[in-house]
TrEMBL record:
Peptidase M16 N-terminal domain boundaries: 118-247
Name of the molecule in the record: Nardilysin
Biased composition regions of type Acidic residues, renumbered to the chain: 78-87, 95-107
Location of the Peptidase M16 C-terminal domain: 273-455
Record family assignment: Belongs to the peptidase M16 family.
GO molecular function: endopeptidase activity; metal ion binding; metallopeptidase activity
Domain called Coenzyme PQQ synthesis protein F-like C-terminal lobe: residue spans: 851-951
Region (Disordered), start-end ranges: 1-45, 78-114
GO BP annotations, alphabetical order: proteolysis
One Pfam short name: Peptidase_M16_M
Keyword Zinc: yes
InterPro entries per record: Metalloenz_LuxS/M16, Pept_M16_N, Pept_M16_Zn_BS, Peptidase_M16, Peptidase_M16_C, Peptidase_M16_M, PqqF-like_C_4
Length: 1057
């Protein structure tokens, strides 16, 4: 992955003043009217039709203006410029759904064909050149806290979260993030509301209020965010390794912030004074980079930027840089072996080296060159050798984008290897292989052929890249503006400009055994080692020891193994980028070009994006996996083994931008290949070869290794409370649902003979659905599908055996399934209140969408911002195989609120919301209707979006490719009374109502209470139901999932039409 380099780092406690300021522009700037300076234009892809302009305001703020010229609109014709003073309250970011809670099984609001006159979002982002490295020593997490606080009202717009309420009311979104050396804020909305949005947004940086009462509440959100991060092995390991930094290195700081640093260790007066002082010192215009994109002329965007951001104050203090450090990390602490107990069931080896900062080497990207070779997975590679010995499964190498690994002070280059049990047992042999491979690179030196191949791949990728969503693009650009001069804003992080072998050699020189940090992460660490140390913030248990002289000598003296050689030339690199002539007339939607009792093939030539890409999507429907839990497990195992067999063969294809996905679908096996169309069929043929020849390539060693991998996947998924909550909800709703815990328990009992028998018969009787879309002809599409059917040698599946997914009708009233979290280290709880409506058509779907859109902002503001129930609060439309409903989800902490309290507050909110809904002004309601219509008409930004919508329609066999056009016609006919009556019916406020409520709760573990339990992944696992509470009657709880399901009525199979 290409990395960005920051040319003008933010200041910090270990900084010296740089009187030269920021990097000089490569060309002399032009002076415009008034106080605007025009900077050089950025270089762009020849296929990028957007127009750009870079300006610098008198206060020092630099802005990148991006005009979407092919889609320009006339604001006067749109007729919806804002003049109201919106007053609803909101929050810093949109409430997101619980992790892994929305899947392909529930298409939800993902459905909808965006057609008609295409709308498109405008977006704006501002990045400030200061981050957590600048936290004062006595208040860790202050930069992150300030990022939250600026949302809490301004002098011009004093109502708390007024900006967020406005953006959500207009159908947009907003968010922010704090990095080590920069902080980024961004939002998206429709063009008509951009000017008003920019005016409100700019007040964050002109006159934020940051009142004391908001401060005391928002630090609770910081605490909740930190608690949600505690189970992450990545964050835990990062905090541990940063703890070995030199005392003067700001990477050593605790950057998250929590109640200890923002409440217990500081007075409210001092915190209030400090957050204002930090804002005044660092939130200065000359540290700010702004990027804005819209379907408006550059002159309009320029005018608005000047109007909104010229008043941002500037203290004109010289930009600070961190002075060089001879020892950025303490060698006696860093150059050791660490044995770390992981939260998830993983086994990883991570080797890291500290190198000089490579931020000023973006034109040659020497670290990315090394990363590309060490992380290569083709023949002769390090991971190929380790896989052949069944010691490892995967490898990643490089420095990543994280500020703790890649900053203006140093670069931390890491190689992370996912070990098998055999690899864990042979750790020294794995280490020898790693350093043997590095020794080969040091001896052979840089290879210009490889550099040129990487450059060719990245050039091609850049030239033919699909357009990013505007909000993602401006976020990236605003950050890039800190890293590169104006001419390289777009290209700097993507392209390889010059070959500098001396820089590659210099970095390779740091990759010696004596400079290495070695971390071994394992769930079993405590069983094999005395973990005598605890990291103070994340409470990670670990032990550490010196790298013995014997091992050090062995690693230093190791020679290159004969198995190792540099990557061979990549035969998958495309050379034909020609576009097919367009058919006349061109089809607006996919057309069926073949339909038999064996296959249905849909085809659509791309005429919109005009890029040499294509997608081949195949859904192989079979009844065998759904006959038992064992068969579900066998299919899962079949898939993970095929992926492992494919790695070495298809890795060069992935480097050349050809991708594939092989996964279990709701009804069988899904194969999707996509990328440059020239050689896409070759990739599909490779996949089909291993499916058909599975038994000739699998062996006992591979079988047992991958069985363990699958076991870990099952366990690690179940450890996530959001995933577990979704699993339980689906287990209660679906007639046939093999849960992850059931699969885990069945996995230990399957053997290789069963798997080989399964592979021979599973895909012999099938029904195949295909969608082929992009720069590919109808004749090629038919040929691809014929080859697939011939290779598989399959016969039609009897219609009576076609799998159907049936949904249970919940009984009237309310029922709760409450379980303990499998992760004993996790304090997080999930509460999901699900309200089932029943079978519905498009009209009911649209009514639910309107309800969710009306509810989204007030529920977040009430439950998250005001009541501080948890950091993550959301409401979601549910389409469970045609059965509609909605849910409200809150992620809370066990030591802050009981799940009974959280559930009651959700219920209270819905009842109060229903009361308030009746008094909503008609013009406010109509505004929401208009925003939803515009969302429906937003055009696809890239081919993948269009393909996904079409593919969803085909998989569900609904085929409503013009869904959004139909939905728009219904939305306009829904009135506020309809929604009010519907909500009252759903939440039980009407007599004889359709009140069918299911509450699913996953309860975290209170660390203040001693629990006589340990996470055991060696035996079967079962959901631990909690069936009583002093606050609830006994019949409220589901005491047995199977008994509860047994007598429920099934809805007929129904599609939304």
């Amino acid at each position: 992955m290409s990395k960005r380099c920051k040319l003008d780092p933010g200041s910090g406690t270990n900084a010296v003043q740089n009187k030269a300021g920021r990097v000089n522009d490569q060309e002399p700037p032009e002076t415009g009217p008034g106080s605007i300076t025009y900077l050089p234009l950025p270089n762009k892809s020849p296929n990028d039709q957007k127009e750009y302009c870079v300006i610098k305001l008198a206060n020092g703020l630099t802005a990148l203006l991006i005009s979407d010229v092919p889609n320009l609109i006339d604001l006067e014709e749109e007729g919806e410029l804002d003049d109201d003073e919106g007053s609803e309250t909101g929050s810093e970011n949109s409430g997101s759904d619980e992790e892994s809670d929305v899947s392909d099984e529930e298409l939800g609001s993902q459905k909808g064909c965006k057609s008609g006159r295409e709308e498109k979002m405008a977006a704006c982002a501002l990045c400030i050149g200061v981050g957590s490295f600048s936290d004062p020593d006595d208040i860790p997490g202050l930069a992150h806290f300030l990022e939250h606080m600026v949302f809490m009202g301004s002098e011009k717009y004093p109502k708390e979260n007024e900006f967020d309420a406005f953006i959500k009311r207009k159908g947009g979104s907003d968010n922010a993030s704090t990095e080590c050396e920069y902080t980024t804020f961004y939002f998206e909305c429709h063009d008509q509301h951009l000017h008003r949005g920019m005016d409100m947004f700019s007040q964050f940086f002109i006159s934020p209020l940051m009142k004391r009462d908001a401060m005391t509440r928002e630090r609770e959100a910081i605490e909740s965010e930190f608690q949600m991060s505690l189970p992450s092995d990545t964050y835990r390991k990062q905090q541990l390794i940063c703890g070995t930094a030199h005392p003067d290195n700001p990477a050593r700081k605790f950057m998250w912030g929590n109640l200890i640093t923002l409440r217990d260790n500081v007075t409210d007066d001092y915190l209030h004074e400090s957050v204002h002082k930090f804002w005044e010192g660092y939130y200065s215009a000359h540290h700010m980079k702004l990027a804005v994109q819209a379907r408006l002329p550059l002159k309009t965007l320029e005018k608005w930027v000047v109007e909104c951001f010229s008043s941002v104050p500037s203290n004109n203090l010289p930009t600070a840089v961190y002075k060089p450090m001879e020892e950025t990390f303490q060698n006696k602490l860093f150059n050791r072996i660490y044995i770390v107990e992981s939260v998830k069931d993983i086994c990883e080896l991570e080797i890291s080296w500290i190198m000089p900062s490579v931020m000023d080497m973006y034109k040659s990207k020497p670290a990315d060159y090394i990363s590309w070779i060490i992380g290569h997975e083709g023949k002769g590679s390090l991971i190929s050798y380790l896989r052949k010995h069944l010691w490892a499964l995967d490898i990643t190498a490089g420095h990543g984008d994280d500020g703790c690994m890649y900053n203006s002070i140093y670069t931390m280059f890491s190689a992370t290897i996912v070990l098998t049990e055999s690899g864990y047992s042979n750790l020294e042999l794995v280490l020898e292989a790693v350093f043997s491979y590095i020794k080969m690179l040091q001896i052979t030196g840089p290879e210009e052929r490889i550099f040129n191949e990487i450059r060719c791949i990245e050039d091609t990728k850049f030239k033919y890249s699909e357009e990013s969503p505007p909000v993602d693009y401006v976020e990236m650009m605003s950050e890039n503006m800190h890293f590169f001069p104006p001419s390289d804003y777009i290209t700097g992080g993507e392209l390889y400009f010059e070959y500098k072998p001396e820089e590659i050699e210099m970095l390779l020189g740091y990759m010696t055994p004596s400079r290495a940090n070695i971390i071994v992460s394992s769930k079993k660490a405590s069983k094999e080692h005395v973990l005598d140390q605890i990291e103070p913030w994340f409470k990670t248990r670990y032990t550490t020891k010196e790298i013995s002289q014997e091992l050090l000598s062995k690693l230093e003296e190791v020679l290159p193994f004969k198995d190792f050689f540099l990557p061979e030339p990549n035969l998958f690199i495309p050379s034909d980028f020609s576009l097919l002539p367009f058919a006349n007339p061109t089809a607006k939607y996919p057309e069926i070009i073949k339909s038999t009792d064996l296959v249905e093939i849909f085809y659509k030539q791309d005429t919109k994006f005009k890029l040499p890409f294509a997608y081949i999507c195949c859904n192989i429907i079979t009844d065998l996996p759904h006959q038992s839990v064992t068969n579900c497990v066998l299919q899962d195992l079949f898939i993970v083994i095929i992926k492992q067999l494919l790695v070495e063969e298809v890795y060069p294809a992935s480097m050349a931008q050809l991708d594939y996905n092989l996964s279990a679908s709701e009804k069988g096996l899904m194969i999707v290949v996509n990328g440059f169309n020239e050689k896409l069929n070759l990739l599909l043929e490779k996949i089909l070869y291993y499916i058909v020849n599975f038994n000739n390539n699998v062996n006992k060693g591979l079988f047992h290794a991958m069985k363990k991998v699958l076991s870990r996947q099952y366990i690690n998924s179940s450890l996530k409370p959001g995933f577990l909550a979704r699993e339980i909800r689906m287990k209660l709703l679906l007639k046939t649902c093999c849960s992850t815990t059931e699969r885990y328990n069945a996995l230990s009992k399957v053997n290789l003979d069963e798997l080989m028998a399964f592979s021979q018969k599973c895909y012999k009787n099938v029904f195949v659905q295909c969608l082929i879309q992009g720069n590919i002809s109808k004749e090629q599409s038919l040929s691809v599908c014929d080859n697939l059917l011939t290779t598989l040698g399959c016969e039609p599946l009897e219609k009576s055996k076609m799998p159907e997914i049936r949904v249970h009708e919940l009984p009237r009233g309310e029922h709760c399934c409450r379980v303990k979290s499998f992760n004993l280290e996790d304090t997080n709880c999930i509460t999901v209140n699900y309200y089932q409506m029943g079978l519905g058509q498009i009209k009911e779907y649209c009514l639910l969408e309107m309800l969710i859109m009306l509810m989204e902002e007030p529920i977040f503001d009430t439950l998250r911002t005001q009541e501080q129930l948890g950091y993550d609060v959301s409401c979601t439309l549910r389409d469970t195989f045609g059965v509609l409903g909605f849910s409200v989800t809150v992620v809370s902490q066990i030591n802050k609120h009981s799940v009974d309290h959280v559930e009651q507050r959700i219920t209270n909110f819905l009842e109060n919301f229903s009361v308030n809904l009746k008094s909503m002004p008609l013009e406010d309601y109509q505004e929401v209707v208009t925003s939803l219509v515009k969302l429906k008409l937003c055009g696809d930004v890239y081919l993948k979006e269009e393909v996904k919508r079409n593919w969803d329609e085909i998989k569900s066999r609904e085929y409503i490719f013009d869904r959004s056009e139909r939905e728009v016609s219904y939305i306009s006919g829904i009135n506020l009374e309809d929604i009010d009556e519907f909500l009252k019916d759903q939440i039980g406020l009407k007599e004889d109502s359709n009140f069918r409520k299911l509450t699913v709760q996953v309860v975290g573990h209170d660390h203040s209470i001693k629990e006589n339990e340990v996470n055991d992944t060696e035996s079967d696992i079962y959901v631990d139901l909690i069936t009583e509470s002093p606050e609830k009657p006994s019949n409220y709880f589901i005491k047995d999932i199977y008994s509860f399901n047994k007598n429920l009525v099934l809805y007929p199979p129904k599609k939304i039409e």
